[in-house]
Structure formats: structure tokens, C-alpha cells
Amino acid sequence: MSFTFVSSLPSPDVIREQFPLAANLAQQKHQKDEELKKVFTGESDKFIVIIGPCSADNEDSVVDYVHRLVKVQEKTKDRLIIVPRVYTNKPRTTGEGYMGMIHQPDPEKKPDMFEGILAIRHMHMRVLRETGFSTADEMLYPENLHYLSDIMSYIAVGARSVENQFHRLVASGCDVPVGMKNPTSGDLTVMLNSVVAAQLPHDFIFRANQVHCQGNPLTHTILRGAVNKHGQAIPNYHYEDLRLLFELYSQRSLKNPACIVDTNHSNSNKQYQEQIRIAKEVLHSRRHSDDIRSLVKGLMIESYIEPGNQKVGEHCYGKSITDACLGWEESERLLYEIAEMA
After folding, report:
1. Where is the DAHP synthetase I/KDSA domain (predicted)?
2. What is the CATH number of the domain that holds 31?
3. pTM
4. Which terminus of the chain has a lower count of CB atoms within 10 Å, N or C?
């Protein structure tokens, strides 16, 4: 085999023992979990907005960004639940490019997984400690989940991972909402099959142990658009798409039918400013149909301090080094508009 074993890495249990979450922060996180759970079970009619940078590439600018959300959350708390995107694992279509802080805590230096593990735990914990927000991240590598699972209140499974059996099994053991994105092909059946699998109990091998997971009733769908055989983006946020998803849910015996709409990626064809229009169209669809209102629980928005994106090494503070994002001013305005329309 052509593997070169560089170094042994500490297990999540060791890291969590060395860098524990304080009891008061664990309680804050639990409260956020309960708020989100009530939205997915229908006990709360608040609207969820999962918002933040495409990739969390710099701790100081990410924490700065989340601090800006605090005021907005306070003013919109009767209508919105804001969950900061603090994404530290980045899937790459071709395997090229920045793969997230867990690989490179400094995007301009060589990969260092040990320092990356420490960096992502420190950043997620700092967000919770300084702002009161528990976080969202993507479960790109299921075996790494427990490095952060005591801090996160929301987990996403991406379009390239949603068909993977291991992701589905691990999602069945999560005790927070897990969103399953539609695959890049756009096949809604694949996405719904993933939800079915994650809501069922399973026994499997995890980190060299036999484990049992009881199933996660908060697993749900995320619509992120698709790509056809010609490489063209096909959005799936329109009224007809939401209506179809509602009907497909109705044909299955799933707990807590729910959907989050991702306003970027193939829904916007990565035209980041289109996220504003897309968000408003989804909200209009919710107002037009009680069925869609009951199904669509929130939005996912890519946003940072500065609009657009930059290359690694350009050093513009608070500007994405992966996909282009909305800037803070337009994001703040959009959040208030979402609160009024939700």
C-alpha cells in the first residue's frame, strides 16, 4: 500500500478530556438544541437561518462575524433562530484547493491535522463562549464528528456524501438535527432514502468499536440545486420543487417532515448575490401554501464580512477564500427582511 503514516492523532475522547466544554457552555448548547428541536417537531413556528462563511478559514474574522449576529438575533428572537455556519471541513469536487481548517489551520501553510483538530475545537468553543451561539458544521468525515459534537447544534451532510452508507449510519446516532442535501444529480429519492436510513436504528463499526444508534428523528432534507449532464445548474427552490418534495414526503412514513433551502451552490449557480432573491422567493412560497410553510423550516445562506471571495494569500480580512459570500451589510438587511416575512 502507498500510504505514508505521518503521525498518530489523539481520539476525540482524549481531545475532549484535554479541552473540555465548561458546564455553563454545555447548558447553553443544550438550550439551543431544544429550541431547534421544537422547530423540527412543529412545536415552534420560528424560522431557522443557518448563516455564515462558506469556509471558516480564520478564527478572529469568524468570531468577529458571529459577534455581529448577536444583535440581529436579539432583535429577531421572536421570529428567527440564527445558527452560525462554522464550516471547518470543505469537500472539493476535484480534490484540489483549500480543504478546511481541520487540514490547514493556516491556509498558507502545509497541512497539519493535529493542529487542525485543536484549532477547530478552539474556534467552535470560542464562538459559544463569547456569543452564546452553538454552531453548525458539515459532517464530511464521520469519524471526526466527536471532536465537535458536544458544541454543535446542527450538522449537514453534503451533496457528495449523502449516498454514503457510513454518513447515514453515523447520522442515526446524532442527537441534533442533521440535514441531508440532495446529491449533485438532483435526485430527491436519494436524499429521502438518506433520511429514512438515518431515522432508523443501526449497529455498525465506528472508530474500532461496535456501536448501536437508535435513529435520529430530526434528520431532514436540504435542497441545494443540482447539475445536469451538461454541467448546467438546475435550481430546486421554486414553488413547484417545494410542492414536489412535500408530496414525496407524504408518500413515506417519516418523522418530522422538514426541509432547509440552501440559497447558494447550484440554486444560485454560485451567483452569491442571488441568495437575497432566492430567500425571498422561498418565503413567498411559504406564505402562499400552508403545506410548504409546514415543510420549509429555514434557509442556509453563505455570508461573511466582505462580499465576494479572494484567493489564498490576498489577506482581505473577512472575505471568503472558497465560494463567494454575501457581505455583512446586505446580510444584516436580509436577516431583518426574513424576520418580517417568515
Report:
1. 34-334
2. 3.20.20.70
3. 0.97
4. N
